[in-house]
Specification:
Two copies of one chain form a homodimer.
Chain A (H helix, E strand, L loop, with lengths): L1 E4 L3 E4 L3 E10 L1 H4 L9 E2 L10 H20 L8 E6 L5 H7 L6 E3 L6 H15 L4 E8 L1 H8 L15 E2 L2 E9 L4 E7 L14 H20 L8 E4 L3 H14 L8 E3 H4 L12 E2 L1 H17 L5 E9 L3 H5 L6 E10 L1
Parallel strand pairs in A: 3-4, 5-6, 5-7, 8-13, 11-12, 11-14
Antiparallel strand pairs in A: 1-2, 2-10, 3-9, 3-10, 7-9, 10-15, 14-15
Amino acid sequence: MIKRIGEGTIEFDEDVIIESSVGVAGKDEKQGPLGEYFDITFDDDRLGQETWEKSESALQTTAVQALLKKTGISAKNIDIIFAGDLLNQCISSTFGLRDLKIPMYGQYGACSTMAQTISVASVFIASGAADRAIAVTSSHFCSAERQFRLPIEYGGQKTPTSQRTVTGSGAALITRGCSGTKIKHITAGRINDLNIKDANNMGAAMAPAAADTIKRFFTDTNTRPSDYDLILTGDLGKVGSKLLKELMEGEGCDISGQHNDCGCMIFDPSVQDVHAGGSGCGCCGSVFCSYIMQKLSKHELNNILFIATGALMSPTSSQQGESIPSIAHLVHLVNG
Amino acid sequence: MIKRIGEGTIEFDEDVIIESSVGVAGKDEKQGPLGEYFDITFDDDRLGQETWEKSESALQTTAVQALLKKTGISAKNIDIIFAGDLLNQCISSTFGLRDLKIPMYGQYGACSTMAQTISVASVFIASGAADRAIAVTSSHFCSAERQFRLPIEYGGQKTPTSQRTVTGSGAALITRGCSGTKIKHITAGRINDLNIKDANNMGAAMAPAAADTIKRFFTDTNTRPSDYDLILTGDLGKVGSKLLKELMEGEGCDISGQHNDCGCMIFDPSVQDVHAGGSGCGCCGSVFCSYIMQKLSKHELNNILFIATGALMSPTSSQQGESIPSIAHLVHLVNG
């Protein structure tokens, strides 16, 4: 059912599929190039809530409830949910999902969480530990600004390398099945730390982690970039994407023909003030669970690598002079 | 290999074992009733670090390195590590483990994290997704006070229902094997929320989650309390333990003959100023990975339930008037 190949890639013989998925997003994301692809969008990023943290919780609630509705499955028939987010103690997930009464293992991988939740869910499904699992994550521009930088009311200025946290959520239903988009391989990331300390340049901090995981996957599977339709990173943004391509090229592996990045895709920098692009768990969460999954189900994409990257720092660690350790988890998806 | 029984308990046919484990603890824990059982203790809770957060990271580093040394396995032969802690963005884990270069999926279950990391690791091992996995968690009194309450320098007074966060860490190596302590079942917790809002009474907030998981496990496995040598909760403390027994008794299920709680065991309230007992991921982490695992390996215990409980709030959610959602994950261990 499950076999380990190479140094650390997990291969599924059993047909583990993403049966369905939902991406929800906020106002600015709706106005971006992928606006029409999101399953649900909000014109008011408050979502009718009193605080930004509660707004973010509502994003997750909305995504999961829409997924249940779309698939016609009730919450009590979901065996397990893997959820995580960027907020302290992952409160978007716990408060967003508490009323569903689904058994839950909370996940933390910073912005890599979407790939992590799908990965861990896929092992539970392939092994029979669960028949139906949901993977979900979220982020919100205003809760993230308050958490990691400054409350938006301060009107702080951003550096050109900074990224804009996406207001959005992605939820995917992982099951066993013979048709649909299969999860063929997963590769868990290792922490990389090249001593980058600029919390306004997350892309640069995360690029080495993405390069590490992608290289390990190619070695483990004995494949190369041209074998794939798309090599999609989570939220490296403009700066991190450039650096990733350079790092890979330095290793003799040119991914420039296949690479794209959710953080570069979700906004249009020519008309939207987003500096180096989008970021946050909800960035690749919403893009992957809507636009990319739609492309896969229409067979416009058939064989892709999804690598979500996470910066594993906190404001406290940065204040204490620490660098930014990063991680990237990979999911290989194919149409059967 | 893995089968689901009842409403949500996972049973392992394959022999998934805890091959070895290490519990490390601080000064007060050393002076408590279990002091002699910890593998490593520290007389200075700073562990030679400049900040409490770095001290907590050092606890995890120490626990994992001691586990590798004890088992003679190098870090590169560990397939995956499941780690989590209480600090914002789980920095004790990421900074404590970054130099090991082991693939990692970060976990967040608040004080339930030790049972969660063992549970998720056991599915990876039973399914063949990994051959060797480490489950690890930590907490530190001083970093937790600063994070969740007030910096210790303020000398704030505590209520009698409050618990003292344990300075400690537990690490366990999960593998397949035919001898040793087996992981027979796991039951993932569901979020329970009885609208308790007092962040100084975590035991009361968490007891309903423990009761929910334990009842579901008994129903799924068609067993009862007297079938077990010990029903060990994580860190309900004195107040929460009493409430759990009352809740279970109200359901016609008397666990008072088998129940104990790591938070009640780790300190001696007659001589240590710990109010309602110990708490934190490192509480059941250090107690389970040292004292309890030693009892199991000596066959003084042979069939136990380990239920770690977590309070899924943050200071922000409490300040916004939210209640404290809780969760409890169960691991059933038997000597083969």
